[in-house]
Records
---
Amino acid sequence: MLFDDTYTTIKQATEALFKDRGSKFLAFAYPIINEQEVKKYLDALRGLHPKANHHCYAYRLGLDRSQFRINDDGEPSGSAGRPILNVLLSKDVTNVLVVVVRYFGGTLLGVPGLINAYKSATLEALGEAELIQKTINDVYEISFDFEAMNDVMKVVKEFGLKINNQTYDNRCALAIEVRKSILNQVLTKIENIESANTKYLSTL
């Protein structure tokens, strides 16, 4: 295989609590697939914890792991979002959002104390999570005449492709997930079927 088509993420949302000198740091880790989900989770946490002093977060998205964002939400620059992101980097996970909700306990922790608190809270939350390996899949739509159904289904079966949705009529359409590393083989076989066309939809 010429390239790695797997990545590590978390299976389900988790939460953890870290305390330091009266301050409480509630860490929430979520598996995500896009930025819209980040907003949804942040809005939900702000609704659940309206009296918290800070909602700091970092996320990493994308299969090349290059898309990320950090937010200190009023904490000193570099003391919250960056330590959260550094944990995601050290664990080599992607498609993960971690939000740490802080309730101030009355004692200033200083930047080193904050860095340690946000890092520790994130480590605790990820420690609760089950890490899973996922493959990078492209979603394609195959459209074909009804007569070609058997030939198309033969390819689907041969490569164990997952069908996301389907419509059957005179002209049929299937949305399938294809693992990156076998994409060319699958597309070549489909395109050899008379009346079959393929269209790229998205990457998961």
---
Amino acid sequence: MKKVIMILILAMCVTSLIGCMVQQDRAHDEAYISDSEFLLDTIVTIKIYDYKDEAIFDEIFNYIRSLEEVLSVHIQGSDLWNLKENAGKQWTQVSEDTMTLIKHSIEMSELSMGLFDITSGPLIKLWAINPPEGHYPTNQERENALDLINYKDIQIDEENNRILLERPSMEANLGAIAKGYIADKVKVYMKSRGIESAVINLGGNLLLIGSKPDGSDLSIGVQDPDSLRGDYLGIVNVSDKSIVSSGTYERYFIHKDKKYHHILNPFTGFPQENELKGVCVVSDTSTDGDAFSTTLFLMGIDEGMQLVESMDEMDIIFITDDNKLYISSGLKDNFVLAPDSGYEIKE
């Protein structure tokens, strides 16, 4: 019965996945084990090439579940829930994972000059985007939410493992980084069990462990934002990397015939409007890939590409509304445009 339910869930959710695994070697297709569960509000799929005991999947899924119970603001009693409840009142004791992730989030906020801000929780809650539903806020509602956003109002007491949100009604939301962090933790866990060739897919946040068993790169399809069937616009050939995509096609609702997506600008309070409909970030860690996929989308092509080209371990594909692809220099030799995709690579 469990397998039947999972098949039905997969059928309903497959169109929402951001990236897709493209199989090109049928011999290797027969030499892996794989399983999926609904966790982190998405379909989580683990594929392992060099391990045969399927009991490992229960261990992995339970580990993911334990991290979600700490890092999700929506689970009562989690660290993030307690931070929200104690905002403006008292310090909250947190786990090592929460402390690590919030410190990293503050570093991202400083790097992005506030475009990435985990205290955007009130704004995220206000828009309440849960496709096909959402709430278009009044100007006053939006201003009230914006007044609560400022990562500098997070106080950290590392010595005692405590965190404080300084003002009442503040809310930290790790939705733009937690899946990446969890993927990295899962990779460490799997490697500790001797796994050296696998794909971790947290609803489109892909993290690769090593390469194929024969040492060749894995082929990862980049989702076509305009496709509801999971079609890909091209293939990235990489090993031991994170591939995270983000775009206007993931979560949105329609209000008065206009689409409003989930990538919210913490300065304007509105979904970001630029020439982009998607980005695909390739990085060493999924934590960075997750956070930068949102940040670089908000930054836009010119500023975002300048930042990426200044970094040694980050690459990106910007996907524009008019079907142009802007690819960072470190990724051009590893990307193959799909035939008849309708997209054009720009120099």
